[in-house]
Amino acid sequence: MTIPHGSGNLVGLPFPTAAKPRVRDIGLRANLRRATGTIRAKRAAVVEEVERTGDWEPLREAGRAIKAWTMRNLPELLERFETAATEAGAVVHWARDADEANRIVGDLIRARNQREIVKVKSMATQEIGLNEALAAQGIEATETDLAELIVQLAGDEPSHILVPAIHKNRSEIRELFAARMPGTDASLTDEPAALAEAARRHLRAKFLSAKVAVSGANFAVAETGTLVVVESEGNGRMCLTLPETLISVVGVEKILPRFADLEVFLQLLPRSSTGERMNPYTSMWTGATDGDGPSDVHIVLIDNGRSATLADEVGRQALHCIRCSACLNVCPVYERTGGHAYGSVYPGPIGAILSPQLTGVAANKSLPYASSLCGACYEVCPVKINIPEVLVHLRQEAPKNAAEKSAMATMGWVMRSRRRYEAGLRAARMGSSPWRGKGSLSRLPWPMSGWTSSRDLPVPPRESFRDWWKREAAEGTGANGEGE
Amino acid sequence: MSAREEVLARLRTALRDAPVEPEPVRDYRREGTTDPEELRALLVDRLRDYKATVHETTPDGLPTTLSAVLADATVLAVPADLPVEWLAGHTGEVRADPDVPGLDTSDAVLTGAAVAIAETGTIVLDAGPAQGRRALTLVPDRHVCVLFAEQVVATVPEAIARLRSPASPLTWISGPSATSDIELRRVEGVHGPRRLDVVLVGAADG
Ligand code: SF4
């Protein structure tokens, strides 16, 4: 049996082409630098709080191991989840790909005679292009996260998993609300609190009248059939609580074996993601509950390339991702290009390994090169996904010639051992002058030299990486993680 | 083949040659401090850090404290099973388990909680006694939550251990609703309650 790949919003222009105009956009770069810098600092502070008790590494290791065990036993766990959720009153649907998932959701909404629904931000529904598919069926989906609302009003695409409107500043948002949000007062200022208040008033009427809501889920517990949504604003709670019908679109990899496993992920996720000890709201629901929340509860489990990803013994770890976005915020390439350059709903380092696997590398050839392989993403990942290792592995999937292939094999070997890899980085750092003078990244000291001698380091955009590298060399500080 | 059968078959095919994964090792911390004073101080610090207002009182002082905290709540929503003595000093209109429009026109809601986590400043509601259904603590603009010292644990694993039945809906609350979506400036209160008051009931007076 060959396993088909996924479809949906996962492929765009080749990365180098898409990245160039972004890197030249000074305003975008300033917003991004400030944003990623702020979140990085917040994350570091709350992670350090846990490191002081010696608990961060054991938690990361438990997170990694639980995810690895889950993936190994995924079919059985999904069956278990289905049984438990069904017993609790939910209806479980399965979708092979984006089209099928969109059809299931659209049919459910139309069967309830609804033309308007409210939505909680969810990567899975963005991946399958649900809003566009619903619009084609005459159903209007309103995004209720503040950032998603901004993006939707602008007719734009999200640029960051966690802060999708990171590319818009307050005066741009004010203009957008005044022009496009019905009922907005002309006296609206660009104070963030005033903007939030305007969104609150605009959306409240929709929450109180909506009959159907669509959500994703951060976790799905096999043991109990419970779904979990982690959020900040309360729009999630509104969608999960007030409508009569709730449809949750959930990737099959969101499964956790046991309810108690949440104790690991609810510590790893908020600290890694928003840099908080805990996010303002986490909702957990199990099927339907009499007299409390939606009585008509549906769960759509989607594959869309996940089984194909699972088949790759090196690449399958990408399915462990809990979408915290820590890897985006430390990535020197992302900081320069922003999320749109990746052409997929999954940007940054995780996008560079997840999107090509969901679609098949042939459909997404440039993304495995959208990285400098600096390793910072691996250092911060709360579930220890070895992103550089997977990047190098994916580059090998479509080798150009024998020399390049062996260079890549060396790189893979370097990446697999943290110690070798860090030694390589240190050596590279100390020997930084050769390329700095020449303005190209053509030579690196061994063990990285095997790679660069056959091909210039594939670092789109090369220019941004050089700047970052210079700053690194000058400051000698920590974008590469602890102790560096 | 149905989608269900096909997805499961694909996953089984994908795992055909995968090695057995060892049982995850869970050697992280499961317990923090149990010292009541340390727990209290930590919880209060973390709640305040996330912009909740904390009021400390004793079992005997609870009605008086609540009447002061709720002084400006003209219309107060409560779960149907709220202990009546909590409201002994309250003079405004009280709505027991109102519908959503009734909640939308309430100034505040008063509930209890199931458990609180000191290290993260989190309150967990599990639809148990004095908590009511989820909409209650969501729609009004202010949530006043009564928490007893014996409900406070140090760590997330301890809280999970106390919540062994997820059959009823759970809501974890850490501070008021917030967004950082506009230029990463934290703004308290978007759709959930913009004000969170925690009334922490300690041991009885000496
Ligand atoms: S790959 Fe790791 S760091 Fe990146 S979003 Fe996923 S879990 Fe977070």
TrEMBL record, chain A:
InterPro entries: 4Fe4S_Fe-S-bd, 4Fe4S_Fe_S_CS, FTHF_cligase-like_sf, Helical_ferredxn, LUD_dom, LutB/LldF, LutB_C, NagB/RpiA_transferase-like
Gene Ontology BP terms: lactate metabolic process
Annotated SUPFAM superfamilies: 4Fe-4S ferredoxins (SSF54862), NagB/RpiA/CoA transferase-like (SSF100950)
Domain Lactate utilization protein B C-terminal: 396-472
Top-level division of the source organism's lineage: Bacteria
GO molecular function: 4 iron, 4 sulfur cluster binding; metal ion binding
Segments forming domain 4Fe-4S ferredoxin-type: 318-385
Record's keyword terms, sorted: 4Fe-4S, Electron transport, Iron, Iron-sulfur, Metal-binding, Repeat, Transport
Entry-linked Pfam families: Fer4_8 (PF13183), LUD_dom (PF02589), LutB_C (PF11870)
Chain ranges of the LUD domain: 78-302
Name recorded for this polypeptide: L-lactate dehydrogenase complex protein LldF
TrEMBL record, chain B:
InterPro entries found in the cross-reference section: FTHF_cligase-like_sf, LUD_dom, NagB/RpiA_transferase-like
Chain ranges of the LUD domain: 104-201
Domain of life of the native organism: Bacteria
Database matches in SUPFAM superfamilies: NagB/RpiA/CoA transferase-like
Family annotation (Pfam families): LUD_dom
Protein known as: L-lactate dehydrogenase complex protein LldG
